[in-house]
Amino acid sequence: MNTLRKVQQFIEQNQLFDFEDRILAGVSGGADSVVMLHILLKLGYKCIVAHCNFHLRGKESNRDEMFVKNLAEEYNLIFKKINFDTIGFAKSNKISIEMAARELRYSWFRKIAAETNCKAIAVAHQSDDSIETMLLNLIRGTGLKGLTGIDAKNGNIVRPLLSINREEVEKYAQKFDLKYVTDSTNAENNYNRNKIRNIILPQMASLNPSVNQSLEGNIKRLKGAWKIYSDKIEEIKKEVVQTKNGQLYIEIEKLKKQPHFHTVLYELLYPYQFNAEVIHSIALSLDKQPGLRFYSDSHRLLKDRDFLIIDKNEEESPFEYIIEKTDSRISFPINLTISIFEKEEHFTPSKIKTKIHIDADEVTFPLFLRKWKKGDSFFPFGMTNSKKLSDFFIDEKFTRNQKEETWLIISESKILWVVGHRLDNRFRVKKETKNILEITLI
């Protein structure tokens, strides 16, 4: 079967799009995307070209942009492009460059597709990419779904070239004398995907020259197994999971009665970004005391007496409220009174939790008022060693609501007061203290 017919059949079998649909084609300028665009046009589909310049490869990035622009003009197609500060986005979001590029690309593709009334967004992954993805997931650790490679369709993202491999792409380009650009970083082994492509797969081929065909066959069979498996997981989910007020409740006793309940728990929790290690710890906690908490990047889980309760992590407050030296009262977000006075001879510091007296000369204004966040630590009054706030909460038996409502007053990045609970020992009133700062929670 020739390449054009193979791709057309794949499009029809997977219902990727119809001839009357407009398609946004993501074109990088490499062989895969150039061949994809040529095939779609030759098959009679209507396309718009979209290109992302991630500015990661200096002059090469600008070369690629100009190449794709000229290609779109040659085919008389609408050309859309965007420039990204990929490195800045990765740093500000604390994610890898690969993840940053992925998030930026697909977010923009969806925006442009909506603006141009494109029914589908075509990207040029071929079957070798799917094999590499499967091996990457296998190495990182994954459930069954991760072994099924890349999906042909995910929402309006479609991959019409998954029915052909890299060799077929190159032969097609030669046949039609298609020009394309080459990403010089593909030959480097700084990225895990490149290591799999350039080192691991060739080594596997030395053991089995038909390794790619074998892995393709495995992926197809695993996709079928996943369909059967996921249908069963959905049945179990209906039995053990309920939703209340936006929270997910997993009934512990019903979960434990399931065959291989550790596997069931993995499938229930993995979509909420809990990793395998955390899920294993949760499984071990099922017979332990209630109150244990576990966190993923996006969600938190409370091990209650009868349920595992999952909801979204509260976003850290983006605000730090400023307290100036001239302020005598703060009414938002909490009510505080502030005053500074000279220390008298027989002065006694407050022992009330809602009022503190501190050495005013140890404080640097402005002060900042903010919610606590993971990683915060301080020196609890009376102690000479630091303690994580999370440990302090455990020791003080804070309820979940108390933790979420905890505010801190900060002086030069140091916690001055866990408001209403504990003063930091570094700011305590000493014999030599001359001036007192008094703060009261009303």
Topology diagram in text:
Elements: H1 3-13, E1 22-26, H2 31-42, E2 46-53, H3 59-74, E3 79-83, H4 86-93, H5 97-115, E4 120-122, H6 127-140, E5 153-154, E6 157-158, H7 166-175, H8 192-207, H9 211-240, E7 241-244, E8 247-251, H10 252-256, H11 261-269, H12 276-284, E9 292-295, E10 299-303, E11 307-312, E12 321-323, E13 329-330, E14 336-342, E15 355-359, E16 367-371, E17 377-378, E18 387-388, H13 389-395, H14 400-404, E19 407-411, E20 414-418, E21 422-423, E22 435-441
Parallel strand pairs: 1-2, 1-4, 2-3, 4-6
Antiparallel strand pairs: 5-6, 7-8, 8-11, 9-10, 10-11, 12-16, 13-14, 14-22, 15-22, 16-19, 17-18, 19-20, 20-21
Helix pairs in contact: 2-7, 4-5, 6-8, 6-9, 11-12
Report what the structure shows.
By secondary structure, the chain is α+β, with helices and mostly antiparallel strands. It folds into 3 domains: 3-216, 3-Layer(aba) Sandwich (Rossmann fold); 245-312, no CATH class; 321-441, Phenylalanyl-tRNA Synthetase, Chain B, domain 3 (3-Layer(bba) Sandwich), CATH 3.50.40.10. The chain is 39% helix and 21% strand. The protein is built from 14 helices and 22 strands. It has helices at residues 3-13, 31-42, 59-74, 86-93, 97-115, 127-140, 166-175, 192-207, 211-240, 252-256, 261-269, 276-284, 389-395, 400-404; strands at residues 22-26, 46-53, 79-83, 120-122, 153-154, 157-158, 241-244, 247-251, 292-295, 299-303, 307-312, 321-323, 329-330, 336-342, 355-359, 367-371, 377-378, 387-388, 407-411, 414-418, 422-423, 435-441. The protein has a 6-stranded mixed sheet with strand order 3-2-1-4-6-5, sandwiched between helices. The longest helix is centred in the middle third of the chain and has 30 residues, at 211-240.
